[in-house]
Specification:
The complex is a heterodimer of chains A (191) and B (509). By secondary structure, chain A is of the alpha/beta class. Chain A has five helices and five strands. Chain B is globular. The chains are: A alpha/beta (191), B alpha+beta (509).
Chain lengths: 191, 509
């Protein structure tokens, strides 16, 4: 995965060039841990909070780990750029409603399977777009990306408790994410 | 609508929803668009195959009132700002002002100025987001550009990488003002009845003053980009002025004592489609002037001017329908409150043929004019010696009962209304949000676009894109309008023939 992903759409937009694409936006920031775990969601929308809850459990477990950072974020769009930038690996935990699988099912996709530039969405940029944008801007963006999304039962009711099916799935979710970040962070010594 | 028709609609909707649910969709998981909110348009054809009615549907979010009941009123600025991540500061501030009213306490002068500072910073940031990221791509990249280019990356392709950096860097710096006072941008913790929780330290002032100066320059630069790219392109201008995107309605916006645009405080002023003042009222009077109409096909409530009554989705001199947001604010005020914004505003009206402007797509331009006012106001406030006063809060002493607050959210007028018991615990909570205020106008825009694009049963290519442009100018935050969540909104259109049989489903790829 490289900046080629981001620049590809501009083949047909030939007159535009990007002088200085290799420069960083700001002064170099202090080194960040290799692996970022980013839990996304809304904490008062029932199952939408599952990414935050899972990240909170992981944060307790990995506090102080030199190669793993865990963030619970309710940010959207461009706000995510600042959080993602500078990490080598990115693991996102979120919720989704596809309606195709039972609630509590854990979807797992890598960056090649998220729509990097899904066209115009009325409000937001997704993680895929943020990655493409960050690379275009010459920012140090994660090389490896993994997205875990828990199938939600209800994300449309205000509430602070997960639904039963999602709550039951939570330990399994945390275990799967733990396995992935452990694998990636252990790999960091050899890279 | 008679009962038989209503039943047909309901049956059709139930079938359409079932079809939507059961359809095996190729869902791409995009984490921030995780909510799968969908905009659904139901189009009903007559026996000639022309459009009889078109309805724009959105999903519903449940439980706001129940969730609020019994909670301390002081929690409302936090709760309402959490409902969605799009305009947290607007909800936070409307709720905070409702708390002032609930406890009958005026904020101190410095407290009020800090609120206004933060609020203008939020307006500047949110408008910039819309111009460059959300609505702007339609114009900056071009309405005819392929969808994969109509996004922020496409915008940067057009305006250049340096410009892109400028946008991202400025937006980040403006957000620093909000997080300085509020702790977090997404869910600020700032407003208290009678003031704010944090003062501005003198030593931190210079950095923010520099930011304010840069902010004004940034807003003017944005206007120049808009002029160069949009206004110099006759095709874009033609589209802005076209009938498809024009509705003659009333307009509502908040004004100061000189009837100039104000985002944070003032009275609500309404003008008719000829620009004449219809009424002017305070937040506390809103129920005397604004009423809500319910349609069987939508979760959205359609607000209208009470004194004129609900007359259906009609425009013209007698209509009770009004618009809110940048277009409406400029129409409803006598001008902008700051000099550079005023100059930009004069040019706007001169170019578009005088006041009021009824072209929905001109909202994008009005938004840029407002960016200039927000930036100039930030600069004024940061050069006001009182801004660093430590006297930022007056403690309330009254027994609470009922409170109302209003602000101009970036998308338009936002009312919060609470009732509490004598301990200050919520017994009733209601919000009238910008998209609700605009709902009737949005519905008219969608129907107009559908009527223009479907003739004799033939559906023109690009229907969904054209319809989407019609409502994207409003930047509808469908989240709180239906008390539902925004996000990536895959548009679907269901087309029914005159027998109310589903004949075609269009889905945006």
């Amino acid at each position: 995965m490289s900046a080629a992903v981001a620049s590809e759409p501009f083949v047909s937009n030939a007159p535009v060039s990007f002088p200085g694409a290799e420069e960083s936006l700001e002064a170099p920031a202090p080194r960040k841990p290799a692996v970022l775990v980013l839990g996304l969601g809304n904490d008062i929308l029932t199952d939408d909070a599952v990414g935050l809850v899972a990240a909170s459990q992981l944060r307790n477990r990995f506090t102080g780990h030199p190669d793993i950072a865990v963030i619970e974020s309710q940010e959207l769009g461009l706000g995510l750029l600042d959080q993602i930038v500078g990490h080598r690996d990115l693991v996102v935990i979120d919720s989704v409603q596809t309606g195709r699988v039972p609630a509590g099912h854990l979807h797992e996709v890598d960056e090649t399977h998220i729509n990097t530039l899904p066209g115009m969405s009325p409000h937001f940029l997704g993680v895929g777009e943020i990655l493409a944008l960050g690379r275009l801007m010459g920012q140090p963006m994660p090389e490896r990306v993994c997205l875990f999304a828990v199938e939600a039962e209800d994300s449309h009711t205000l509430g602070t408790e997960l639904s039963d099916s999602v709550a039951l799935a939570l330990p399994g979710v945390v275990a799967r994410v733990t396995a992935r970040i452990t694998e990636w962070s252990e790999g960091s010594a050899t890279i | 609508m008679d009962k038989a028709t209503q039943d047909a609609f309901n049956t059709g909707n139930a079938l359409a929803n079932a079809a939507y649910q059961s359809k095996k969709r190729n869902v791409t998981i995009d984490p921030v668009t995780r909510l799968e909110g969908h905009g659904k348009i139901d189009i009903y054809l007559d026996d000639k195959g022309d459009v009889e009615r078109a309805y724009f549907q959105v999903p519903e979010l449940r439980g706001f009132e129940v969730f609020s009941l019994g909670r301390p009123a002081e929690d409302m600025p936090q709760i309402t700002s959490r409902i969605c991540g799009v305009c947290p500061t607007a909800h936070h501030m409307a709720a905070t002002k409702a708390l002032d009213d609930l406890y009958k306490v005026e904020p101190t002068s410095a407290g009020r100025k800090i609120r206004e500072l933060v609020y203008n910073a939020f307006t500047l940031e949110d408008h910039a987001l819309h111009v460059f990221v959300l609505g702007g791509p339609d114009f900056i990249v071009g309405p005819e550009a392929p969808p994969e280019l109509r996004n922020i990356v496409g915008v940067i392709g057009k305006v250049g990488l340096e410009a892109g950096r400028k946008v991202i860097s400025m937006r980040r710096r403006v957000r620093e003002i909000i997080s300085y006072f509020g702790g977090k941008v997404v869910h600020p913790v700032l407003g208290l009845p009678g003031g704010v929780s944090k003062a501005l330290k003198k030593e931190d002032l210079p950095k923010f003053q520099q930011l304010a100066t840069d902010g004004v320059e940034f807003a003017e630069w944005t206007l120049q980009i808009f002029k160069d790219i949009v206004l110099k392109n006759p095709d874009y201008v033609k589209m802005i002025l076209s009938d498809t995107y024009t509705h003659k309605t009333c307009y509502m916006g908040m004004v100061d004592e000189q009837n100039k645009v104000n985002f944070y405080d003032g009275k609500l002023r309404v003008v008719d489609c000829d620009g004449k003042e219809v009424c002017k009222f305070t937040a506390q009077q809103y129920r005397e002037f604004v009423s809500e109409h319910v349609e069987p096909w939508s979760y959205m409530k359609f607000t209208f001017l009470k004194q004129r009554g609900w007359k259906g989705f009609v425009e013209g001199p007698d209509t009770g329908i009004y618009g809110v947001g940048p277009l409406a604010r400029l129409n409803a005020a006598d001008g902008m409150a700051t000099p550079k914004a005023q100059a930009a505003c004069e040019e706007y009206f001169k170019t578009l043929g005088g006041k009021p402007v009824h072209h929905t797509l001109a909202t994008h331009w009005a938004r840029v004019v407002e960016m200039i006012q927000a930036a100039e106001r930030i600069e004024q406030l940061l050069n006001d010696p009182e801004i660093t006063s430590p006297d930022v809060r007056r403690a309330p002493t009254s027994v609470p009962k009922e409170g109302m607050g209003v602000v101009e959210a970036p998308r338009g007028t936002l009312f919060h209304h609470y009732q509490t018991d004598e301990r200050g615990c919520i017994t009733m909570a209601n919000m009238v949000v910008a998209t609700g205020n605009n709902a009737a106008r949005i519905a008219m825009s969608v129907e107009r676009a559908a009527k223009g694009l479907i003739k004799e049963g033939h559906v023109t290519e690009g229907l969904l894109n054209k319809v989407e442009m019609a409502f994207r100018a409003y930047d509808p935050c469908l989240g709180c309008a239906t008390h539902a969540l925004p996000g990536h909104m895959p548009l679907m259109a269901h087309i029914y023939d005159h027998r109310r049989q589903l004949v075609q489903v269009l889905e945006q790829s």
